[in-house]
Amino acid sequence: MNVITRERLQVKPLTAHIGAEIRGIDLRQRPDGETVRQIYQAWLDHLVLVFPEQNLTQEDLLRVTAYFGEPGHLDRPAKYHPPGFSRMLPGIMLISNIRENGEPIGALPDGEMMFHHDMIHKQVPSKATLLYSVEIPSQGGDTLFASGYAAYETLGPEVRAALESRHALHHYNYGSTQRGDDRGVAAFNECVHPVFRTHEETGRKVAYVNRLMTVKIIDMEPAESDHLLNALFDQAERPEFVYTHVWRKDDLLLWDNRCSSHARTDFPANERRLMLRTTVAGTTRPY
């Protein structure tokens, strides 16, 4: 795909529907306001941005996070600030399979994860997530991103009509729901949101359900609910709507939780994976 040269950046689309790589910027250098506005618009246009070779400090990561809104609060226990990261700042969380005394030092430690939206189980979900790679395994641990815009806009008329104005229940219980074992990190919550939400900045409609956390359509018979949700999950995860990111050390990724979902592939359990995660707080309940 063509590289789009803005006044201060290069934006290289990665697929037709989702993802772009941002070139020509070192985020340690505190970009000026106009450059930040161009990055923000590229993010709205492409849903997921990749900033390679950034070499960020924790302070840099929090500063960059604030370009996109109010940094979110840490949503996991403070025990995920292990030795070697004792200066971990509030609002930064470890995503890691590294274990000390048999316990993971980070959240979401092992294996694959199905497609999901971060914090969809909250009344006001996160606006955005940023993930920065510190250590990566030799293979696997890739992150897949799917466009909720594309899913909605190409959905068959019968399924769309059946789900328009409906709401769905989203339930998060990582240890039991995702894995069926005790390898996860305890976390639980649930919430109801529209099946199709409107992105408050772009005004576009988006499919807002996912295979990991969406349990049922409210006030619908279970068999019909399951049938329609599976049809929507399959539509959302069509390969042509997905960008797969193969991580490199010092990659920074930013994604829009309002209009994209993401998944993770498995990776060798005996290889270290360490990522730093921040979020941007949501500003409104989905509507």
CATH class: Alpha Beta
The helix fraction, in percent, is: 10-25%
Number of helices: 6
- Tell me the radius of gyration: 18 Å
- What structural class do you assign from the helix and strand content? alpha+beta
> How many β-strand stretches?
19
Major sheet: arrangement of strands:
1-2-3-4-17-9-19-5
Oligomer: single chain
Along the chain, the helix and strand elements come as EEEHEHEEEEEEHHEHEEEEHEEEE
Index terms:
287 residues, globular, alpha+beta, Double-stranded beta-helix, eight-stranded mixed β-sheet, four-stranded antiparallel β-sheet
SSE topology sketch:
Layout: E1 4-5, E2 10-13, E3 20-23, H1 33-46, E4 48-51, H2 58-65, E5 93-96, E6 99-100, E7 103-104, E8 113-116, E9 128-135, E10 143-147, H3 148-153, H4 157-163, E11 167-173, H5 174-179, E12 188-194, E13 196-198, E14 205-207, E15 214-217, H6 222-236, E16 242-245, E17 252-256, E18 260-264, E19 274-280
Q: How would you sum up this structure, described in words?
A:
With 287 residues, the chain is an alpha+beta fold. It has one domain (4-280): Clavaminate synthase-like (Double-stranded beta-helix, 4-Layer Sandwich), CATH 3.60.130. It is 20% helix and 29% strand. It is built from six helices and 19 strands. An eight-stranded mixed β-sheet has the order 1-2-3-4-17-9-19-5, covered by helices on one side. Strands 8-18-10-16 form a four-stranded antiparallel β-sheet. Strand 6 (99-100) and strand 7 form a beta hairpin. The radius of gyration is 18 Å and the shape is globular. The two termini are 34 Å apart. Mean pLDDT is 90; it is low at 176-185.
